[in-house]
Batch of 3 targets.
Target 1
Amino acid sequence: MMPDTHMRNHSFISDRHRLRPRKQQRVLTYELLDPRLLLNVDWRNPVDALDVKPDSAIVADDVLRIINRINAGVETNLPALRPADSDFYDVNGDQEVTAQDALDVINAIDDGVAADRVADTAPDHRRNRITLTVGQPQGVRTYRLKIDANFAAGATQSDGLDIYLSDPTNPGLTLLDQGQPGGPLFQLSPTGASFSTDYVQWDGEILTIALPQFINRDTGLLRLQSVQDDENANHRFVVTPLSNTTDPAVAWPPFATPTLPLTVHLSPATDPNGNNVVLLPDITIEGQTSPGASVALNGAGQGAQTITADATGRYQFSASVTLGTHDFEIIATDTATSRQKTVPLTVKHGDVVLDWNATMLNVVRDWNTLSNDPYTNRVVLSPPPAVARNLAMVHAAIFDAVNAVERTYQPYQVDVTAPAGTSVTVAAAAAAQRVASKLYTKIDELAKFNASLTEALNSVPDGPAKEQGLAVGQQVGDGILAWRTGDGAAATVTYVPGSDPGEWQRTFPDYFPPLLPQWPGVKPFAMPTTAQFRAPPPPALDSAEYAAELNL
């Protein structure tokens, strides 16, 4: 990173900020510069365009150096690269050294730019402006100023210094602000400063402004505006440009405070399948944040708990939940940086049916495959008709497994009588796992099913009840799978779209193929046939009834 450490003082007294409410207000006028595209401005002082030498002062010697360069007969057009020991002749940034550059410095001196104290009678004077270089191929440019602020006795919150970063050709257009277009980038008052912490830093004396990669722009205009509640107040602000540096490795925004990391989940022992449905009341909530952060657990009728994350950032809470839904809130606070983050966690204490329903919905949501119709590698999500069939099979197995133990209802499809004392929880989970693992066979899907079965097994003590439940559930699951084998869901049907009126065709914009054309032939779960409650066909296309409906 190559700093440009050339300085000069801009000192001026109150002018009016047009955006703030004031008792008195003065209107600023501006000198508009000719627009130009992004140019090579290596020959212009990036810290302060008027400082030719550079020596942190705007004096006659700067003018003389430009004149001597012109009189030396050296080409008007400046070469692409400036020698490190050369002056900054290109005051206006047009890649030429001409009399206009000298005139700009003369006018600045005449306006009192180099004076230590400036009157406020002409707010449009260039003494209240700094032309700086912006734009870089990559990374971030950093501009630094020193501000010496002296507020007169009796200064109010309305008094202060406003700094704008504007487009030189349109000073009302701000390049950076605090979220209000046209507003100041930085505001200083007797009680403090206002700025965006993402790209501005202020330590009470040095103002650091980070500049992004402005597209097609090489010049920015810093407007320094003093505002006052009393026109007779004698506030004094001395502004000294310090440096203008670039760093290609810095990402934007450079000063943004990173979000405090915070992960929250139930422990694998509490919730093996990770669906936030638990079968037992005692739970463990855990996660990770910044090492040493304070972590609080609130909600769900629990007394507030606060612990400190360990050296790796890990934390853990123990809690108890009754049947039903419970909302927790985990709050992590990094006291060193004052960062804080809150993450909610909803836990459902339910039975095995709710647990498996949540597991199946998670699998269905994540399921996908690829198709080359109508284009290569089209992602296909779970087709709703197939989801309905698969979920019906899983829940049919759960019903018959539970009924095998409790014998409360007529069996749906598989009539099994479980031995006395058989665990209904294990039976239901084993039946669901048996069916689900044949319908969804990817490794990650099987892992969820096995975890859900493990959660059920962990909720029941070892012994005959668990063993019998496992056997009964697997028997029922096998029965449901056998019953639905050959039900038509896997049949291959080639659908050929027609071209006559009333026949289905692929449609804009995606022209997707027909969905599961074999489905009319799939065996229903409750009706004897698919035609049992079929609605009558629509009216003929050439009928008066069709014409009347179409013309509504």
Target 2
Amino acid sequence: MAYYGIGGGQNYNLAFTHATAGSAAGENSAKIIQSLCLGMGRGVEQDIPRAIKLLQPLVAKSDPLACGAMAEVMSQGRLDMTWSDDFLNEFAEELKLVPAYRPKDREKYVEVAIETLSSQTDDPLACVITGELLAWYSNGRQSESKARTCFNRAWELGCSEAATEIGLLYSEGDPSQRSLDKAIGWYEQAAKAGSISANTNLFFYQSDNGVRKYNSESYSKLLATAVAAGDPTAMECLADALWKGDWLQRDAVEAWRLWEMAAARGDRSAMFSLSARLQQGSQDEKQQARAWHLLKLAFLRGGIQSVADVASGFLFGYSGAHLQPALGFEIASKAASAGFADACTVLGIAYERGIGTSKNIPKAAETYRLGIDRGSSSSSYQLGILYKCGLAGKADFAQAYSHFLKGAEIGYPAAISEKGKALLDGVGVEKDTEAGISCLRKAVDLGEATSLTYLGRAYEYGEGVEKDLPKAIEYFQKAAERGEEYGEYYLGQHYYLGTGVPHDVPTALRWLEPAAKAGVPEAQFLVGCCYSEGVGVAVDNVVATSWFRKSAELGYALGQYNFSQALLNGKGIQSNPEEGIKWLKAGASQGLDLAAINLGLEYVSGTNVTANPVEAARWFREASNRGNPIAANCLGYSYLIGNGVEQDWVEAYQWLALAMAQEKDVESKERATVNMKTLLPKMLKSEIAEGKERAAKFVPNAGASTP
């Protein structure tokens, strides 16, 4: 009985070999063990349909051990809800591998097995199977005390796996009875008696709970022993350790091999890990399709990690899935109702964006709060973003920070990142650049890519760290290589401008184009400029204007300005003066001097809009108050001739003097000088003195825009 470690060491590989031979000889007990190996993926690749086929003749005869085994095998297909035909059709391929059984299908086998096996107290196999059914497959785990009795009896009869099961009750059973120390004590006893699964649990609980009783060599031996005996959970744990290289030398090839083995044996965590790596490593359609297939299989097996990802895949097109918003919403809703905390996050995002359902911000916030109550750090983060962006009403940065803080305390990388950004900028919390940088570094260590970009900006401008442009570009490069869109934009921008790196437009476009496609309006603007000016690519005004339009629609002022000029001049798009003026006003209203000045000139000329000198002067003043010399010359000239404002030579002098005082725009300075020569003969000395005094006292408004 190597499967349960009865009368000797536990070894799934040997169990399957011996059971297969016994099954061929017609031994019913061997058929049951063979079916458990196949159904649970222990010692052999998982084959649930074959396991069920082996058990069905015995179950038909009400064999209690076979009924118990059938219940355990059925537990691999954990569809504990009623699903729509759309769901069943979408998962048809996966359901062939993992048949879906609902609780009522399992309950009848559980009842038959428990009723008959409970009296067989001298049979260790009967005792351990009865204990498993009572502990893990009965409603609400109401029979844990009876399960403990069964396991204790099986342990007395020489079943090493029974001690592991007692440890599991202490670590994962009734919360009021949990004791990590007792759990580890039982695992150690089980391991000494030859239980393979105990080795895996010793690694899992001690490494996760900070008990450093074993060193890395001991941990690796524990797992290697379990792997050699065919334990898929140990394969997944060892693969994870080899991939990360935290306490073992990194070996990605061996990690991948072990993940493949564990996934083939039905380990849902291995399926999830493989799916994630396949998505990261390639855009190949076959790879993406396999990643999605593995994720769906993990979901069908009840993998907590995969529930939110599967729902997200259908809702948002992630993970290589085809968009099916209604199905994604169905999965997220039912999973959230069933208590999956991270499903609340996905459901909240669906409500927030109106995907698969009507947009409902209050409902999104309510759903995030439900996720928070269930311990979801991602829900804390999302609710924080909701407050930060003002989607729950007026932006409330203090509330946003409180939720980021809560998510950070649970260890959610994106929340840690947002906490760091808030501390660095002093938004919603007292500014603390040192603490902010520390949070961002921690988030980077946890794999959060936007923190790389933010650290790059900190080094670029010397915010919380010593100014270091090469270091900043190094961070942008790392972020860009991980697909972080603003990292791509900032890196591309530096290559476009030739700041900190050689001026290299083809390389700039290599990074700017994916950022533009990801919806970064600043990147869309620069890509448009490249096509408009024929820099790094052939001139294509249609493509340029399409990028300017995207940037404009996302609210980027320079994109709005360039799109307005395309509409006004019919460049890459049919001329439309009315629309052009609308977008020019949009850019001007955001404080873009270039747009404000050109809008003023449009009102002066009356070419594309009805002439309105008063409006012209208003827009010239907007930009002049921010210190723009071109606008100052235009406003000064308006006062000189009394166009749109009452003629006022002192005001004219002030603005023309300010335009002449700057060195940035030579042409504007020359024009202001010409206008001043026209003005001076008209003025009294006292008026000139007052004009000089006003110019000397002038202080530009904060937040002057790019001219």
Target 3
Amino acid sequence: MMRLPDTIETLRRLVAFDTVSSNSNVELIDWVANRLDDLGVRVFVQHGPEPGKANLFATVGPADLPGLMLSGHSDVVPVTGQDWSSDPFVLTERDGRLHGRGSADMKGFIACCLETLPRLAAAGLRTPVHLALSYDEETDMGGMRQLAAHLAAAPVRPAACIIGEPTMMQVVVANKGAAIYRCRIRGFSVHSSLRDRGVSAVEIGAEVVAFISALQRRLSAGLRHDGFEFPHTSVHAGMIRGGTAHNITARDCEVLFGAPCRGVRRLGRRPDPGALRTGAAAGDARGVPECGIAIDEVVDARRSTSAATCTSRARSCRCAATAPHRVSFGTEAGILQGGVQTVVCGPGDIQVAISPTNTSRSRSSGTASISSTASRAGCSAATFPGLSRRPAHDGRRPLSGGNTEHEPGGAARGPRRAPADRLRAAACARSTAPGRSRSRLRGVDWSLLRRFVVLLGASGSSKSTLLNILRLDVPTSGELNWRDHDLARADERELTRFRREHVGFVFQFYNLIASLTARENVALVTDLAQAPMRPEVALELVGLGARMDHFPAQLSGGEQQRVAIARAIAKRPDVLLCDEPTGALDYPTGKVVLDVIARINLELGTTAIVITHNAAIAGMADRVLRLADGRLVSDERNASRLNASELSW
């Protein structure tokens, strides 16, 4: 049985991650992935279409059976404008309650799951238990939509799911859907002293809000379903913003409103958003042609069903319920229910989920209940039909496909970078030392974008000087830009941030710490980076998954260089600088290292710049820059790139 203090400590770590939906959740996902990887659990990380967003899917037990999925969202609602008596991202215990953003919704559930999984991993489950963590549930539920699409295409997917929303451990078999709309109002700006000539978008927005409020009153007098805490169809204006000054009629206003009633059959149709156009008295915008109202759908989260099969499953879970419940708030259950039988059950109370008093009871029964349910699901097929039924393979791709970052026993890969990563040097020069007139680098111009670049030149041609300008030095004249940042005129703080966040460097002689293992050498970087790969992922990427616990003295020269490359790429650099990476290696080993660098460029979208005396390597590059006496004397582009195996020297 797990210990409650351990669960509280895990919750403390989870709350400390600021995963407000507008922020990245990758740091939390990587922390969980590392923790599960240490248990030998199969972990799948699915990156979202936007940087900084990721889902996680982990499996304990046999991978070829459907099993039970425990699902939670990793994001939380904002704290801005709320009156917290303590740091919302520091878990604080007061009066037997744990205060912190997300402690109730729903990091408390995730903590219980994480403390349950070690016991399940050691139990030799006959039926698998899965853990799913999604992103952006609090905004558009995009994370679960992406993960659900991936599961739907997999040959094996979970047969059933428990979503851990805060229900006070009562099993919920139905929730209302949520359709969210954005109403955009365009007015006409004039000085307020001439307001009869203008149209205030804010005033029209206020009338839209009044219309929504009146609509709710009419709905509340209509159909009802007493199974829900709020038994009526509901509409709600949650946000309104617009205007520029008190003495200017507002040109723009935006109203965000929800209609969490979609799909609840007995409550009738959802409100027609088109009615807002005619319902707002000022909707004709006083005849000014530039004015108008547009309504866009932001989210359509389907309801979850209350069918008899759900009720039967809920009773068999025996989490804490004597009878199944229904809730008025939206969940991710409707997204999954097309192919995965789903109920909702988790610790915490929705009434405090978004308030500054966001709390979980420190003596909650949630840990024991989740552990008990998962254990029964893992050891028996009785709870949900189909848990242990091995599906026929239909040729669809396995779960390990797609844009995974790491799959134990498989390949590792990362997302391609956006094509805005441009490095540009213009008339870039560097003197030998202050006060000396001779220049080592003379007016170099280049612009690089996600390329594999080879810098060729004889000794003394200033190849290393050019590379060091990108790593440590700054030019004494000229321009050096990364994206929109002027590096030539940046202060030391800005340069340090650029080097730490954007640049990886591979040395000719490895520079590994002899007393640390390969894994620990890479971890020196990942401990400092903002959103790094796990050391294990980086080492898998360079083909050293089986050697990560060896010391440098136990590795060959080529393996040590690959550790150095793993260390350089672990922080996900935009630019990888390699100074003679094959200079100390024999011919076959050098080709292995070059192949790794080429794959980093192609698979991660990293701009790779390689300095070398070896002209044969130029065949691998997109561009070949030749330096002589500190000047760029040629800039060649290869029509096609050779593989490392095709090189000879």
